[in-house]
Amino acid sequence: MEYQNPQPDRGIHSAAAPVPVAGPGQGRTVISETAVAKVAGIAARSVPGVYSLGSGPSRALGAIRDAVGGADHAAGVHAEVGETQVAVDITLVASYGTPLHALANQVRAAVYRAVQELVGLQVIEVNVEVTDVYVPPPVKPTAPGAAEREALL
Q1: 66-92 pLDDT, tens per residue?
Q2: Is 91 in contact with 76 (CB distance < 8 Å)?
Q3: Is the CB of residue 54 less than 8 Å from the CB of residue 62?
Q4: What SS3 string covers the chain?
Q5: φ, ψ at 66 (rounded to 5°)
């Protein structure tokens, strides 16, 4: 959700004190690997067919953390940040029935777009590793009237 200031003229800087525009030699900006990894992770999770990011035991711990409310948006993502470029590695679990090569291409495109637009660094590569496929458990058939009996108990 995007926050919009309902009173744009009442921000920290007033019209009498213009905000200086940084030019060459006025400072530098450092964007951490964690920040880039979070942006990439959120972009990857937004692609339909991505069940989760990460693999193995970390996936189980991630499910517990998500249930408690502390989602780690950078789980399953590694970013290497340089001065002007970034490389991203994504490890993911796909939902069963999703074509894996197409999924990897969609994740790659989403990460490229998000990192370049939000972080402002040139993405030189996005490596996607599909480590597992999530198969939902079979739906247990319920006997007629079973819900009514459970409601009475």
Answers
A1: 555 556 777 889 999 998 999 999 999
A2: yes
A3: yes
A4: CCCCCCCHHHCCCCCCCCCCCCCCCCCCCCCCHHHHHHHHHHHHHCCCCEEEECCCHHHHHHHHHHHHCCCCCCCCEEEEECCCEEEEEEEEEEECCCCHHHHHHHHHHHHHHHHHHHHCCEEEEEEEEEEEEECCCCCCCCCCCHHHHHHHC
A5: -65, -40
Task: Give 105-109 contacts, CB < 8 A, sequence gap 24+.
Answer: 106/47, 106/49, 107/43, 107/44, 107/47, 107/50
Which residue from 92, 73, 78, 83 is spatially nearest to 125, judged by alpha carbons? 78
Cα–Cα distance for residue pair 76/89, rounded to 1 Å: 8
CA-closest candidate to residue 90, choices 52, 60, 61, 135: 52
The predicted-structure confidence for 87-123, as pLDDT tens digits, reads as follows: 999 999 999 999 999 999 999 999 999 999 999 999 9
In this prediction the pTM is: 0.68
Give the separation between CA 32 and CA 62, rounded to whole angstroms.
22
Q: Which two tokens stand for residue 27?
A: 């400072």
What is the C-alpha R_g of the chain? 22
Distance from C-alpha of 77 to C-alpha of 127, rounded to nearest angstrom? 10
